[in-house]
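Quarterly update from the structural biology core.
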Amino acid sequence: MALTNRALLQTSAPLLFTRRFRGKINVQKPRKPHFGRQILIDISKPFFGPPKYMLPEIVKCEKAKDTFGRKEIDNPFERILANECLNWFNTSKMVIFLHVNSISMEDQTPIFAALKKNDMHLRTYGKKIVGMATKGTRYEAVNQLFTSHQNIIFGQPENAAKMFKILKKTPQLVIMAGIIQDKLLSKNDLVEFSKLPSLDLARSQLCSVLQSAGSCLVGQLNQNQQILVSHLEKHISIQNSPITEDNKADAKVEDKTDANVES
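Predicted structure, tokenized:
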């Protein structure tokens, strides 16, 4: 075998070629497969749904698919927190909504203590808890301010100036809006409200203004009478004194002034 391999030249390509079809394959109009193969092709044929541009937006949203058909679980602890939140809304005449930036608990603890010392309470509630608490109440409009967990300050309106003074030390806590005596106010309105004097001071200022106006009116009403009385007293004193040329001149002046007062 070795001798034959040396004597004969070895071919680089095989002498026999296998072909599946004798003629050319018609790509444009291929021949139909037999019945068994056609069944296999029909079974394994992929199914493509309608294109995306024909689908509604709710079907294309992957998040909606995850939440669609999910049952809401009744959590008793959430109902307890919602009742507590609604109680804070009903008992507090000042409610301040804060936007919280990145802040550590170590920096937030002194603020919490300072607010509590001034009869203000800082609480953290999520959007779901606030929605459960304010649903069907007059505070339902505040749900637009919540996107996630946010801080809320509950207190009384007379402590608004102290609250701004405390929050000035922490720029991470930003005031968005607030409710004072059942009125929703912006941050600028809250700043103006904090600069107003207290109720007792405003009452004392009003009383002083009313008293000054009343005393001024009484003085104006009694002015003519006082002038008339002073002139009469002087006229009597002149009549009782001995008559001189100076007294006559004074009497004439007094008669003229009396006539002017009477007119």
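The CA atoms of residues 219 and 226 lie 10 Å apart.
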